[in-house]
Amino acid sequence: MTSGIAMNSIEFLSKNPFERLSLGDKLAIKQLGPDKPDIQIAQPTKDRGKTYIRTFSRGWYEKKKWLCGCSKRNTVFCFPCLLFRSSVCTGQGDVWSTTGVCDLKHFSERAKKHEQSKAHLQCAMKLAMLGQVNIATQLDEGYHVSVRNHNKEVDNNRHILSKLIDCIKFCGAFELALRGHDESGSSENPGVFLGLVDLVASLDSAMRDHLDTATVFKGTSNRIQNELLDCMLDVMQGHIIQDLKNTDFLAVQADETTDVSTHCQFVIVFRYIDKANTLQERFFSFKQIDGGTTAEAISKVLLQQLGVVCSAENDVDRERLIAQTFDGASVMRGGTGGVRRKIQDLYPNAHFIHCYAHQLNLVMQQAVSSVASVRCFFSDICGFCSFFSRSPKRTATLDNIVARRLPRVSQTRWNFHSRAVSTVYENKDVLLECFKTIRESPEFDSTSIREANGYCRMLTDKQFLFFLELFNTILSRVDILFAQLQRRQIDIVHGQRVLENFVNSMAKVRDSVPSIYAQYITDTPQRGGAPNLQRIGYEVCDTVIANAKDRFQFTGHLAAAVLVDSARFPEFADNFPKEVLAKAIHAYPVLNNARLQTELGLIYENPDFRACSSAMALFQLFCKNNLMEVFSETLKLLRIIITTPMTTAESERCFSTLKRIKTFLRNTMAQDRLNALAMLSIEKRLTHDIPDFNRLVIEKFAHMKDRRAKFLYK
């Protein structure tokens, strides 16, 4: 592409004669082949008193492979003659290479006559032989011997390179550092990669011979490692991009974190349904944000990546992006100047989803932050772990008596609070024994004895035990919901059900507060005395229920999920949800209102569909039974619902991989190398799913630059 003009176009070739171009450009044009645009020729013709219009059919491009066209001039040319027209084409044949043909009368006879001409055959032969060894050389027996020897050497080099690629894949899949402290021949710590190469060499004689005798290309240097990693990343990203371009709808998840080098790393994950009708969440890349975590800097990076898979300038592509899922930071969710708004300005169907796992954390934070005694309880829970973590002697006592470590508590992730609460609840008796042992042992210092005595009083305090049992009951429900929200396969319909189940289970916990209270508190609280724990229990449960209902409302574009909720099919069979359908059509204009209403009405009336547990189950039912054309609009709606992500869980998993790959000892890792290693780890199955993965990597590696070693066949 030169200044937006394709090199094989008539416009480019008319301005740049083919004979003046470099050999590289000539071969590139040969590789592109004839340009075949739509030609708008409308030629009125009279025949036997009848008038009709002749038009150019694209079928001619298939019948005559040498045809090319110019959409600006609305003419067709002969591609070989156009390239080699300088002294070959003369007379009538010159029209096919200079002005072009626009007269369709007797076009078939004229084309047949041209392709049989000597000038055309000479040009076609020159084009076919461009970049090839001349015919005389090819007919020489010595040349055939040299080609066989060359290809034999290429086979050996590709075999060696494939083994090196396998070693890198292994290191990437298991997140192992490739390089060692000293990679010299005498080093005792050459690194995992060189160690694997030596292991392969002990099992493969060709690899051993190569390592012992190679002088031009050994393949074990860090430069070759980086080039192979770049090629592997290109192949895997290219496969993902092709999948994204072929899918009907896609959604983007994004989040940011700070790595060990204090660089802001922005992760991009795409969610879509592939050609095998399987839901995929694919890691795409980490990007460093240079301008700070502002909406402008983040949206610039995100839009650049989105432009690779769905261009905002293409109307069809623009409508395919149907969701963007972020956390609740104001810079991301801002409705006027946030990233959400900047994306939606270019992709109007990209509706914002506030990660439901983040919202669940906010629900729990609001539930416990409003009551002072509850805040004190969780502060005390945090103290259990810190008490033992500060001293090996205390930890040894914990191991001997309790035989279980206490988990740390996170201020932002409530599943970590749940682990701490459940561990203390399940082991409160043995923990009490442990603290008594520390308190009564003369081997501990006064600080340990004093703190252990405080924990002994705490574990016998009725208010603490009441809160321990109450929050163990509450957080076990939160754990179940959190685990379900983290699943990759969850869709809006299933998410709506699990959230309703959570609210119902919290209502049951509220009803059980009096029984929990009666286990520990027997005295009636006096006026002005200690707070009524039963009232606090009710308040906590009511806050969780109210905030859950408020935050987890399925309104706006999410209301479309109601249309395929099988639990409501009997209700909709009697009273069709026209208002919900109107909201769905407004949110997603790609849906056909009339046809979708007809299809849904048929589904509602059929009792067999009422057993579907989720949108994915209904989608798979349609695909398995070849009902895609019968329920085409419903299938489109299901694709939208399934593709819409409810959480940024996959982004968080990518951050976990980032922390395992870019460690303190590997903090100078380049961004391209980080992306390649992260891709090999996160999408390790993709290296097996891509056909001939190693061959594709070798092809890219061979064409990356001119190499002294031979990797390309003749």
UniProtKB/TrEMBL annotation:
Pfam family, one: Dimer_Tnp_hAT
Domain DUF4371: 156-335
InterPro entries, sorted: DUF4371, HATC_C_dom, RNaseH-like_sf
HAT C-terminal dimerisation domain span: 634-685
Name of the protein this chain belongs to: Zinc finger MYM-type protein 1
Organism whose genome encodes this protein: Coilia grayii
Lineage: Eukaryota, Metazoa, Chordata, Craniata, Vertebrata
